[in-house]
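Go through this:
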Amino acid sequence: MASVPPNDEPFEVRVLGPNDVATVRAMLAMFGREFDDEHAYSSRQPNDRYLQRLLDSDTFVAIVALTGTRVIGGLAGYVLPKFEQARSEFYIYDLAVEEAHRRRGVASSLIERLKKLAVARGIYVIFVQADLGDDPAIALYTKLGVREDVLHFDIAPSAGAA
């Protein structure tokens, strides 16, 4: 249980497993609301079997913050096994906290839980991107890690290449 300021609802942080499909769907819905992109997170969700396999894999991690059974925060990301050394990196793909629960340490608690998981799995670094102008995310990540200024490029796959 994470510590909370007086008069705030306590929350629990836990790593999801293959039996948590309903919870991962609730996390996706929360991401859609908080990122103002409900269509992307809810309109074409995978079937239960796909989500069970994903949650049971060694290369995907989902961590939620809950008040009771309500998802108030979530983190999803990927373990990236390296080839130059026998080690892995972790990429935080999505992290969000419901607006009503921000500034309570929820995001920091999600990352702290991830850090413990990373140590247990032999992951040597966790990395995350933040968009320019997303000052709350930049402040959070600056507090927790070392900033690297990089460029990010999206490359579309070629339909004709095999």
In short: Residues 27 and 71 are 6 Å apart (CA to CA).
